Amino acid sequence: MPRRAGTKETAFVSAVTAAGLVHSVTRSCSAGNVTECSCDVTLRHGGSAVAKLMSVDCRCHGVSGSCAVKTCWKTMSSFEKIGRFLKEKYENSIQISDRLKKKLRRKEKSQRKIPIGKEDLLYVNKSPNYCVEDQKLGIPGTQGRECNRTSQGPEGCNLLCCGRGYNTHVVRHVERCECKFVWCCYVRCRRCETMTDVHTCK
């Protein structure tokens, strides 16, 4: 993570860290492993993403399956679901300075405020160029990074190499294989060689 503060990436990391802490503490609290704090207080003052994605589960009690009495409780979502929620917020994060300028312009015309949701991720500084090395900001760049030629995801060469293209070279791997136990008492293996295409960003 680059050292430049106030970007959408640092906002995302802060949100994930806070959500992870609240998720972990709340789970321990619910299991009775934490007695020094209230679970309700932890959720109220912790990650809003964790609280927002909580679901209500209910169970019926009664004769022959009737629902004479119903017991309900709150259940936390998986951290994977919380991560997807925060990823979506990251992709739609709001730059405060730009919004403030628009807010001032709109206020002069219609005196209306631009709402910012409680779960919105806000940032001040534009993200630096992560494609190019910048030692001052602690950005390694993507030159020389190994990429996946067939993937369309973030690890794919098209995206990871920032449009610069990639180099392909063959790597020879030698490893032990087809190992068998020989009585008595050692393991005999063959040496197998494989050739693999490795793609790295230009």
Basic shape = flat
Strand order of the largest sheet: 5-7-6
Q: What string, H for helix and E for strand, traces the elements in order?
A: HHHEEHEHEEHEE
The largest sheet, given as strand count, sense and whether it forms a barrel, is: 3 strands, antiparallel
Number of helices: 6
Q: What number of domains? A: 2
**Beta fraction:** 25-35%
Roughly how much helix do the residues carry, as a percent range? 25-40%
Low-confidence stretches: 41-46, 104-112
State the total count of DSSP E strands: 7
Distance from N terminus to C terminus (CA atoms, Å) equals 22 Å
Label this structure with key terms:
Endo-n-acetylneuraminidase fold; secreted; 202 residues; Protein Wnt; disulfide bond; cytokine activity; lipoprotein; alpha+beta; two-stranded antiparallel ribbon; 7 strands
Walk me through this protein's architecture.
By secondary structure, this protein is α+β, with helices and mostly antiparallel strands. It folds into 2 domains: 1-138, no CATH class; 146-201, Wnt (Wingless and Int-1), C-terminal domain (Endo-n-acetylneuraminidase fold). Helices cover 33% and strands 26% of the residues. The protein contains 6 helices and 7 strands, in the order αααββαβαββαββ. It has helices at residues 8-30, 39-45, 48-52, 79-91, 96-110, 157-160, and strands spanning 55-61, 69-75, 94-95, 122-123, 146-147, 166-182, 186-201. The strands form 3 sheets. Strands 5-7-6 form a 3-stranded antiparallel β-sheet, with no helix packed on it. Helix 1 packs antiparallel against helix 4.
